[in-house]
Amino acid sequence: RKEVEQDPGPFNVPEGATVAFNCTYSNSASQSFFWYRQDCRKEPKLLMSVYSSGNEDGRFTAQLNRASQYISLLIRDSKLSDSATYLCVGALYNQGGKLIFGQGTELSVKP
Amino acid sequence: DAGVIQSPRHEVTEMGQEVTLRCKPISGHDYLFWYRQTMMRGLELLIYFNNNVPIDDSGMPEDRFSAKMPNASFSTLKIQPSEPRDSAVYFCASSFLHRETGELFFGEGSRLTVL
Question: Which of A18, A63, A85, B94 could form a cystine bridge with A38, CB 3.0-4.6 A?
């Protein structure tokens, strides 16, 4: 089983829709989580951190549920420019700070 | 400031040839990571260094792969001999405070095709 697993996608949604991505992790020693965004044929870039209390950045909301080992990303009022692959990332600080990436979920926002 | 610089951006080679990928991290960063990305397996961590010392190479597929970091501003990933299944995009990333911020700064990647 992969340490970080995501919905495979792709998600095809119309502009303005709300879309949610889910991610589960298997290593309970994972201490921190993040969402990265990767545009087609580009490098991944940090989108936001994920906190147990939930955190919001504009149209994006990230949530962590440690009891269920579950992470989510919600995008409201989706834009064409949100089309990308979203990668869930877990940090294993008991292994020196390794960052483990999920396979990614592809989002395509259509006009 | 310049970001992480990787070279070559693209390489096409024949099976059995040696491939060397290069990376210059962001100045001042003390961690350097090598990842490989394919459609089938996603982004896989191969090896990472802290202050030029390899910390974890458990992701290196086999003995054909080796990585070095002779100084704080340069790292190489070598594949010898290369095989078609090594075809992938290889990313180098560096960081300074990723334990707090989770932020790795990736290079643009080296796209390798082994025929």
Answer: A85
